[in-house]
Amino acid sequence: MKLSILDYVPIFEGRTATQALNHAVELAQLAEKLNYTRYWVAEHHQVFSVASSAPEMIMMSLLENTSSIQIGSGGVMLPHYSAYKVAEVFKTMEARHPGRVNLGTGHSMSYKNVNKALNEHKTIPVDYENQIDDLITYFNSDSENNINHRYTDLYVMPLIDTKPKMFVLGTSKKSATLAANRGLPFVIANMGQDKEQIKSVITHYRSSFKAQYPTNHPYVIMTSFVITANNKHQRQDLSYAFHLWLLRIGYLDQPKFYPSVNYVKQKSFSSREVEKMSQQNNRVIVGSPKEVISKLKVMMNDFDADEIMIQPHVYGEGNRKHLIQLLATENFEYK
Q1: Which CATH number among 3.20.20.30, 3.10.180.10, 3.40.50.620, 3.40.1690.10 corresponds to the domain 3-229+285-334?
Q2: Mean pLDDT per 10-residue run, the chain (335 residues)?
Q3: What is each CA distance from 84 to 88, 138, 169, 237, in whole angstroms?
Q4: Global pTM?
């Protein structure tokens, strides 16, 4: 089973953003040694407990400190930005590290004030599908003489022989259709949605893709939160910390850090909080390494996915490293 990683770059209790970013580099280096396929960085704005507001910046740091693993964005929220500028940034990374740069795109609007700030002075709403078309043109213009584009004689520098790999993120048939129509891989999160709905979206993507590109292969990456550790008590502790984080980021008074296991143990929860946390259980896969790999394999088969992208969003640098080591070892033995 092909395994990859999606990182939110959490800022743990008692840690700084600098430490969080340094840890992301260490985790990517370990993931490379463990033969993970990709290491992607999410984009989140005004979430105080994560350091991934500028995934492109983190990506370059990861690229500079690894040598073979694919590094990408999961993903750049494209409507906030100029497709031309995004193309320049990703082509620059590709020029420096040919064949290793992944551009995953999404179109989340984020918080209202974040959306307003990121789209300041725009008078015309940006069309996401047009931006995808623009990026495809920009990345291919070096060899195709930049034809059929609305900006005449516009090139994206630098001119290079390779191009970033593009991926479309989403959970709807609209996003699946966009990916299929452009012949791009599709990345879908499994976060407790209705199982049949997810299957329907993926089936739609595959059939639409094959109808337009019969000689090419559609490609689906599925992502999910995972929690594992050596024993049940460790897994339980990490799960409580994760669920508290997940619960609190939805509040106006969101946490300034990812809570530690000790913090959670000292906290008393209201019955309403306990109920809401239990409702989120289907958003994360928890178990022994063998159980998690088995569940991921079942998920991969059930949803006809080609690759699984885990989100090791647990407390503690050592716990995160151990998590990806345990799963890599179990996945190898599973084969």
Answers
A1: 3.20.20.30
A2: 98 98 98 98 94 97 98 95 96 98 90 81 86 93 59 85 97 97 97 93 98 97 97 96 91 89 90 86 95 97 97 98 98 73
A3: 6, 7, 19, 45
A4: 0.95
